[in-house]
């Protein structure tokens, strides 16, 4: 094989061919794939060329380029998988941020296929190893979560009012015209791409979902959903099973990428709230299921019904407090069932309980009869600001807000606040299981604690701890001792309650005590898949785990960023600083993040300089200067918020001010009496400086 | 390696390296057994736990995560049995007989003390680990710290062994609170850098002794220990999480081997208010400790619990060459980072007149002086002008001012280390490698003889 000269040549040719690729042309893509296959010796340069192309090409050409990548990794595989895998996160996310929603959903579909084995291949490993895809998923989840956060705020109050009325209608979140249930494809054409993103990913999953829908909607079985593809495509995922090993992502003609960039207004419209969300959910389902589908599907539909009935009940008696925990427990149970592999006996156990439960509410009027009499209130159609723009999608300090909320809300699970607070869209929507929010913060909800809550809510009788189901993690290991990854059924057992008779005497130290070893393993909860650290399954443990996973996520991201920047070791801390420093949370990374987040919000309350808002996407809006000082805002990337922000900015009404300017101005108005006290110079200059220091502190995060 | 087009091989490290394909072996370990391995310096192995549970010195390993070990003598223990996949060449064997039961029970006994301490709002146990060189002291310290961490505690780990560094380069003595998982691949982990690391960084407080053996200059070693204990105790008292967990103190093997050393142990015991002493291996040491401490009361009136623990059969002698290479690797890592994080140190050129360098006097050079009264006059350090013999040496930059007295400088903590890359006698300039680009001319620097760096780091 010749390596030297042709390598550059190949890269050049490849890049040139790529440059011509402006649409999803099967011929061109297979041609490029062929080139890649025939030149595996030059895989590095080829993959570099493709990566560069993806990064540099215009948004409209990004998707075809990704399809080339997809085709190469699926048809050629190693070593390309390796080379692309290295920077897949940045390649993917950078493009994701730039393309429109339609393309985004395509990208998400594609990502999903990367987590599965190559169709038709003997190899059971996923296309990309999970270490590569997981960060991307996390980022997408984060984006979705932050959107939901923003969205929930406004819809929460509508909960009880909307609960019943919208029970049957599809959650047409941002659109003022609620479509009817399960609208035929023709209808879906009207709201266009946004809708698809919400709709299609639910189509392909196995019988379970279908059954779930049908059992809900009508006794008569629905035709398979795959036949109801909306005209704008999305066949890629639905063809999963029939995917030919060497085939390219097939796309119907009308799926060709729009050549012209959408203008500003259509852009806004297209940005449908949570494109990644549904697909993620379905991924989880698709991946998580190995149990017998039939009984599971039945169980799922039963639970789904129960949830709906309970909700209907609740909406009739909004003051009845018992419903909330009940619904929550059911929703969580549903999540567990969907995202995890439970042993069959466990499933049948749950089935029995669910069956019993079904008896009780049966007498109540079935909500199916009520065809959404309540029109959606204006609140559901949010003001233009709340249009899910890129910024709201990624959310200002979404993570911070989420974490802060968790600590502030006495909810038993991090998943719950999200679900409970957003019922209008979620609870009532059969397509979109409300608990789908759960993976965002607690990727693996712990079944044991769920069952515990079900029990607490009086929905399940006490079960022996030994029947606690095995969480997802165990399915990844080859043959773990069954009890090892089983989280404790109750909250953490303090060591004091475990018989610990060890004393520091030679004889005592020599006696093996297996029950104590357990307190280093299974009693600590399930391990993190990245580093093996274990987390309790109780509320606090979940919170910690969520923060921990965030930490892993941030670290990967920062390391990627830092690679190009050049890094150095820091000086050791001074004696006094060291004595004063604290390892608050257990992970210096998390610690600083947490403390800076809390100090951020706390400081932001007092200190206008630390306030920030997401930079507006609308160029017109972005060009408007601060009405007080007439200076423009400076856009900065804020690690913590994971997006571009305007530091020292504050939105008052429709206008955006420098927070410090605003504080200054209002102070003049509000505290004229106190003006005697000379205010330290709080000029904008100073504000900027401090703002910078603040950012610098975030950057130099590891110093705890 | 898989054939292109057939399947997607997981990115194995073997692919990255152009060397011949490393052999992959799968070991099935019985419950309660230990897989011990030695990887030569410059070599590496990849280890993956396929199923079961496994731990390295108390830190649990994640299943299906690839761990890479370079130039290490280490072991993987399993309480429940596991299956591991090893890629690469190493000396290895599986041992059924280990002192792990003893060790883990020690942890639980300490845990009981910690529970009591928390209840009574007292300080948790201060544990001193003593034993001859290569008896597994540091491994036990690491194990106990890791177990404590797993139970949600925050142990403070003190290193009084200047022969090896803990989160710092050799020659230094450190105190480090551990609140996050110990890095199983890098010994203990990393001190802070300007970026993030895959394992959370630890924040050591660092003092500089600068010699390999504490007995070389006890007049320097003892006050530094006192200072270290003072700082660590202050932190302990202030920091509730650490307070109930207490300290775990690692010691140099050499002080467990002779009369002069025992005095140093007594010094450490009193400075840190040690109330638990774990003696590894040596019968004689145990009886000597009993003799010294059976009637001893700590400053708070506590008695000292003394336990003898078995030495692990896995302890291997690390010869001088291995230590030398390990130390050089540690120094390199300080400046340049490890394989996962590349650090870029700054090169600075300093004039002879801009730096203040103190060379440590070694005790035996003093002892030759007639009368010995001059020792205090001469001080601990000798102020020297840079010279050619300084090349390839490590200087400790102190948190002190050049105008400070020698005692103040001795008691100061270390800001960082610089490496003298080049000495230009004619131009009277030094070229030094510093972790970051900060002016250091107003800081005194201490020149010790440990660690010895034989080769140029710049090559």
Automatic annotation (TrEMBL), chain A:
Residues 148-172, 197-210, 232-243, 256-267, 406-430, 467-478 have a biased composition (Polar residues). GO terms for molecular function: mRNA binding; phosphatidylinositol binding; RNA polymerase II complex binding; ubiquitin binding. Residues 211-231, 593-605 have a biased composition (Low complexity). Pfam families: CID (PF04818), Pcf11_C (PF21936), Pfc11_Clp1_ID (PF11526). One of its GO terms (biological process) is termination of RNA polymerase II transcription. Residues 6-144 form the CID domain. Residues 148-283, 405-449, 467-492, 584-605 are annotated as: Disordered. GO terms for cellular component: cytoplasm; mRNA cleavage factor complex. Residues 49-126 form the VHS domain. Component of the ESCRT-0 complex composed of HSE1 and VPS27. This is CID domain-containing protein.
From TrEMBL, chain B:
Signal peptide: none annotated. It comes from Mollisia scopiformis. HAMAP family: Clp1. Component of a pre-mRNA cleavage factor complex. Interacts directly with PCF11. It is found in: Nucleus. It comes from the Eukaryota. PANTHER family: CLEAVAGE/POLYADENYLATION FACTOR IA SUBUNIT CLP1P, POLYRIBONUCLEOTIDE 5'-HYDROXYL-KINASE CLP1. Belongs to the Clp1 family. Clp1 subfamily. Its main location: nucleus. Residues 131-336 form the Clp1 P-loop domain. Residues 343-452 form the Clp1 C-terminal domain. Required for endonucleolytic cleavage during polyadenylation-dependent pre-mRNA 3'-end formation. Polynucleotide 5'-kinase involved in rRNA processing. Keywords: ATP-binding, mRNA processing, Nucleotide-binding, Nucleus. This is Polynucleotide 5'-hydroxyl-kinase GRC3. ATP binds at residues 34, 73, 134-139. InterPro entries: Clp1 (IPR028606), Clp1/Grc3 (IPR045116), Clp1_C (IPR010655), Clp1_C_sf (IPR038238), Clp1_N (IPR032324), Clp1_N_sf (IPR038239), CLP1_P (IPR032319), P-loop_NTPase (IPR027417). Residues 29-117 form the Clp1 N-terminal domain. GO terms for biological process: mRNA 3'-end processing; tRNA splicing, via endonucleolytic cleavage and ligation. GO terms for molecular function: ATP binding; polynucleotide 5'-hydroxyl-kinase activity. The gene is CLP1.
